[in-house]
Amino acid sequence: MTLETDVANHYTTGALTDRVKAAMIAAGIDPEAATAKDLKAGDEFHTGGVAASDHFFGHLDITSEMRVLDAGCGIGGTSRLIADRFGATVTGVDLTPEFVETARDLTEMVGMGDRIGFHVGSVLDMPVGDAEFDLAVMMHVGMNIADKTALMSEVARCLKPGGTFAVFDVMAGPSGAAALYPVPWSTVAETSFLHSPDTYADAAAAAGLTEILREDRTAFARDFFAQVAAKTVEAGGPPPFGIHLMMGETAPEKFGNYVRGLEIGALAPTEMIFRKDAA
Ligand SMILES: C[S@@+](CC[C@H](N)C(=O)[O-])C[C@H]1O[C@@H](n2cnc3c(N)ncnc32)[C@H](O)[C@@H]1O
Question: Domain spanning 3-276: which superfamily?
Answer without folding.
Answer: Vaccinia Virus protein VP39 (3.40.50.150)
